[in-house]
Amino acid sequence: MTTHESELKDINNNNNNNPKNKMMKLSASICLLVVLAVANQAQADSLKCSIRSNAVFKGWPDMKRPCVEAMRNQIQKEIFASTQYLAMAAHFATDTVNRPGFAEHFIKAAKEEREHGSKLVEYLSMRGQLTDTVKNLISVPTVAVEKWSGLSALEAAFKLETEVTNSIRALIKTCEGTAKSGEDNDYHLVDYLTGVYLEEQLTGQRELAGQITTLEKMMSAHGELGEFLFDKNM
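Above: the chain's sequence. Below: its structure in token form.
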């Protein structure tokens, strides 16, 4: 490697490790995600299946209507949570707030909630429930935008996760059905929601609770410096 090539490599490494450059890349990523979300919503009206379904498939979609509607509502709740976390990440990524740890934390949270929604869509497809139209399946929600502190953002996230957890519990109850014979109990979906989604939700709530307690203690002892140090270790 020549001296000139070595110098260029050192410059590139310095640029990649520069916190300011990382924040700029994070901000750009957030903006791109918002633009893509709006673009996808603009295309939603055209997402209608035009292929005639085979007559033999009529007995395939065996999910009960109340359960299907509850699933669709849960998908929207997951998308709302994802968008809310994206707004939080954008707030902490601004140059006037500059909390890269919090920004990255909420970017990851937004991704997780979006993946949860995607998995529910995939499940409905697997059960033959998306053979007509998906244009009313997902809508881009309007979320609150505030001047969050680190603590208030974590508290808002905990409240949101609790709401999502309660919504999943209600979904499970709906899909368990009401018939004593159990004929309207969707055993497979109930087991899937209980074993996968509830465990992730409860684990996430416990993690947030620990973060809130730790941050409260650090700010009580060190004030805003406590939030700064907490952000560096997220």
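Helices lie at 3-17, 19-43, 65-93, 100-126, 150-176, 187-222, 224-232.
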